[in-house]
Phosphoglycerate mutase (Tessaracoccus flavus), 216 residues
Amino acid sequence: MTKVVLIRHGRSTANAAGVLAGRAAVALDEFGRAQAEALREALSGVQVAAAYTSPIERCRETAALAGFPDAEVADGLSECDYGDWTGLKLDELMKEQVWTDIQARPTEVSFPGGETMTGMFDRVSAAIDELTGRHADDETIVAFSHGDPIKGILAHAFGMRRDDFQRIHVAPAGISAIDYRQPHPMVLCVNVGGALAAHLGVARGPVVGGGDVGRQ
């Protein structure tokens, strides 16, 4: 196993508009592109053996701007499939009864016409296992993904219950890192990047899709 640097995509036009993008083709906004470009400096000095990315546009765009235009697409890193919720406004979705379950009992949630949260957890865990299995213990890889998948990966590394994964916050362009060398995963950092004020100003009440609606 090896070390994995997990990076959420920069702020997208959907993030800024308060829309649940899911697997829709949504690009970064101007602020998100600046966040992605700043990742180059954040990753300077890190010897990266390989870079992988979700197939979704905003992750591939982030990877390219961060200096990895040839990052290999890994389908397992894709965003949760929110089905019929894709493209809807978050402030409207918060009125749905299932919203409470998403926060407290996500393992019981199945999105209408989409994926179960449990299915998402299993998928991203399998993807990380497969990608780390390609590399030696002394190698570091970078994986560009989305808010909920990254929170799921971190929760597993922390040994947390899956139903508690919403206690973790991952901001757009936030950097987290896990050392997968034996005997167990060790979380090295979570949500690094940006000004401290940006982290302290996170709104309470975790939301599906990673949050940070309209933040700068």
Observations:
- The radius of gyration is 16 Å.
